Description:
The protein is an alpha/beta fold. It folds into two domains: 3-260, 3-Layer(aba) Sandwich (Aspartate Aminotransferase, domain 2); 261-408, Aspartate Aminotransferase, domain 1, CATH 3.90.1150.10. The chain has helices at 18-24, 65-78, 89-97, 114-125, 139-146, 168-177, 228-241, 247-257, 260-279, 298-304, 319-328, 359-365, 381-395, 405-412, 421-432, 438-446, and strands spanning 82-86, 105-109, 130-134, 152-156, 181-185, 203-207, 221-225, 284-288, 311-316, 334-335, 345-347, 371-375. The chain has a seven-stranded mixed beta sheet with strand order 1-7-6-5-4-2-3, sandwiched between helices. A five-stranded mixed beta sheet has the order 8-9-12-11-10. Helix 3 (89-97) runs parallel beside helix 4 and helix 11 crosses helix 13 (381-395). Mean pLDDT is 88; it is low at 5-13, 401-421 and 435-456.
Amino acid sequence: xxxxxxxxxxxTTVKNKLATTTVRAGINTDLHHGAVVAPIHLSSTYSLKGFxxxxxxxxSRTGNPxxxxxxxxxxxxxxxSVGIATSTGMAxxxxxxxxxxxxxxxxxxxxxYGGSYRLxxxxxxxxxxxxxxxxxxDQQALQQALSLKPKLVLIETPSNPLLRIVDIEKIxxxxxxxxxxxxxxxxxxSPALQQPLxxxxxxxxxxxxxxxxxxxxxxxxVLVAKDKALGEExxxxxxxxxxxxxxxxxxxxxxxxxxxxxxxxQHENNAAQVAKFLQNHPAIEQVYFPGLSDHPNHDIAAxxxxxxxxxxxxxxxxxxxxxxxxxxxxxxxxxxQSLGGVESLISHPSTMTHAGMEIEAQLEAxxxxxxxxxxxxxEDIEDIxxxxxxxxxxxxxxxxxxxxxxxxxxxxxxxxxxxxxxDVTKRVNKELSGKTDSNSASKASSQxxxxxxxxxx
Length: 457
């Protein structure tokens, strides 16, 4: 039996507030021994009562009590019908692809997570479906892309790594008018701060590795469907292609979920102070954080979110060499992948989270060599600010003697840094549609559009 048959008392009990729902997830569900906390079920298989008499669970790839409890908890928080826990966040994205045929089209944002971009574009190159890459804040480009009647529209807001915001309700309405299914990546905010299904989305998904678990000791994902029939279809595919999550990871993520709301409050409080600090720091060129009133989409974020989150990015003066010095002089921040843990992390998107995107696509999305992304932890804010200040001051030592960043990157790359973003979008979409001529195909090959091994992230 699948995870769809998990215990669900949501319809028979009074609706609790979100903080209460996170804490109470799985509490008092053990009917055998009365354990207060939901137990972990590690068994890979379950006995039948008799010939062709299955119990609620029969095989753990198909359904597992621990995973089922966790998936239903997220479904309740997102106010959806069906929750499906997957082995990774990218497994949840891959699950979306099972809705598409070779004749279908998916519309993805030009500035989405590098792993999502890589998956959709490379599967499209293999002919599994068609893909359109578009700036979803460009209304004309969005309308043009929607006129192609995509089967699936992917939304990521706030975007990774530049924290751009798009109007979920507006895009969902426009997408539904052309018959598209709308899926929203809610990883950066979690259900505590944004609930896309209430804004018109059909599917919401997360990398539970991040804020939902919150302790950097689990890799997992979850997908929630608003409609039960759609959720059942996706659950069938999750079992079919074998991407469901493990019991142990589900147990840890369920434990982490219980402190989600209180953690997010501290994350948010720290991030707001970090953003203001960076905004006034002489080593900073620009700060990207929706919580700042001068963010171009601040009003949309304030309307559709219950908070501004704890992710932010900034441009360091002095280019990539300044970034290297910054990283070398930090003690509290850890240079590492991922986000959403209680500890503060820092990363260089171009060479880390978005290494799977070709350089042209990075530039089109606004990802430069001087861009730094931070996941603000819950440490004491004074320690966080002191560490950043130390690193940023060190980053500016000797920067006046360095070559201009654009000149350096231009020398190292055949790509023209002054390339027009709209031209890039047209070229990428043309290539993905299979309409490139021989010269274009040769040029694409010479620029190695398939990422090297350093693009695994």
